[in-house]
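Design job #97: recover the sequence.
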């Protein structure tokens, strides 16, 4: 089953350090290809795992969030849902992030997912994520992690 996963903004507002993920159906267009809607919410979870991840970034919505500090979902990751026993143990797990909010609201005005690291309590932003090289994504209570192939 293909799903869309994104951070639940209401739960994040209550506790910014905890990540709760919204899981939504992947709506299909008439030709059977995935649409650009995040779909109907099926539920929420602290842990979600998907294979074959694809980033969906709705640039217009992300720009509105960046310009007006509007609370809205403008990006998510689509993939095939799997249970924990299916998770490929193939390589490094690298933290990823996106924050389209304006700098005045603690954001970075980012319009794409990037690799990041937390060093001495400070978030360090890295290169953009190339999802064609990502095997899976693990969504956990501490953030989202790209599962990379062995080198």
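Job complete. Output follows.
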């Amino acid at each position: 089953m293909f799903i869309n996963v994104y951070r639940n903004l209401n739960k994040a507002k209550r506790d910014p350090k905890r990540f709760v993920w919204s899981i939504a159906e992947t709506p299909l267009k008439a030709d059977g290809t995935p649409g650009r809607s995040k779909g109907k919410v099926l539920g929420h979870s602290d842990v979600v795992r998907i294979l074959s991840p694809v980033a969906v970034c709705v640039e217009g919505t992300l720009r509105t969030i960046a310009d007006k500090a509007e609370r809205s979902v403008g990006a998510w990751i689509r993939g095939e849902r799997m249970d924990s026993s299916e998770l490929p143990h193939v390589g490094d797990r690298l933290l990823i992030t996106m924050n389209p909010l304006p700098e005045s609201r603690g954001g970075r005005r980012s319009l794409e997912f990037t690799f990041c690291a937390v060093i001495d309590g400070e978030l360090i932003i890295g290169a953009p994520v190339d999802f064609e090289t990502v095997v899976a994504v693990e969504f956990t209570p501490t953030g989202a992690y790209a599962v990379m192939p062995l080198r």
